[in-house]
Amino acid sequence: MQKLKFELKSASPIQQLNMPQIVQKAGLPGNKTIPALSYFLSFLAVKLVGTERYAHMGEHAFDSGLGLFAGLNVLPKCTAMSTYSYGLDSSELLNLQRTFVKQVNKLSLIDKSVINLDFHTIPHFGDESVLQKHWAGARNKRMKGALTLIAQDAASKLILYTAADIHRNEADDQVLSFLKYWQSIQRRIEPTFVFDFRFTTYANLSALNQRGIKFITLRRRGKRLVQSVDKLGPWKRINIPHAKRKFSNPLVHESHIEIKDYEGFLRQLIMRGNGHEKPVFLISNDFDSPIELVAGNYSRRWRVENAISEAVKFFNLNALSSPILVKVHFDVIMTMIADTLYSMLAKKLRGFEDCDAPKIYRHFIKGRGKIISKNGKLNVIFPKRAHNPILRAVPWHRLPSAISWLKDVNLNLTFS
Asked: Cβ atoms within 10 A of the Cβ of 50, count?
């Protein structure tokens, strides 16, 4: 049997992000038996393999490969993992998130010019749940759950921010909380925020405008507003470039309007012929960008909805097994980190650059292999698989060469 062997720079996306330093700067706790980094990597491991919920960790109880990934012989038991997550306070979680996103920004993985924002309700079905009821769009009803906020870089589709301890009376002001957080990450570039009309109030739109932040959202449309569209003119046909967009040439009417609780004028774009029965009313404080760019930036808001859908489908964001919100926020942050790692790996795989996490996992991660540790080297032997040539074609030699959290051991990949 002929074998091809080459060295790669560790589990490269993890090493590129310098996870040990992130955990150290975040101040995550550990103990004498299991250090903080091993706890963190244990949670990350079960996220990366799509474990449905932490209670199902028993399926990986004797998986020495996952244990080695975390710097242990096997992963900690479910009770230890749950107890650890309960002990994390909000300051530690915020530090973890901020430190991680700063590193992502440092590596220039994000564009930062347009940011999509959206809420998602993680439902909880326990009889003794004390969580508030929130609107769950996927189920088209209100139900008990944890209201979470997700902010996504529109260009790279990476998640930049999460919040999970949101009450109903706090939801409208979350856009201002995110702005404060984002300005602590990136001070020079003022992004454009894109969100649905339910996301915040017109008064908060005015506050964003006063702080120099551009936004694109929908106007609340009443019956009279829709009826008035037929009397408007002139209309301009535009092209919104997108490979998969079926209705890419809508008619647009542009005007400047005033709205209650908003100080100043807004730019309004009414779109017809875009695949919806009723016209769409876009409003923005961006008076300079071309109509096509404003409409195109809003049309890509579906990317954050896709990110939420993927998180629910593969990273099992909806597997809420406890009403303790700190645990929920930790779970959401780990989802953000796992999603980033899959995206970084996908960018290195020719022909799979835009694939989602489930497909990358199915073709490149899932499966059996053999691990041999000897003389300061870790040799991972892959069985024959259809997509091995794509892995071999990755220029691993350009990435870091050792796994820092395993005493700088060198990692070799051998393909049969």
From this structure: 17
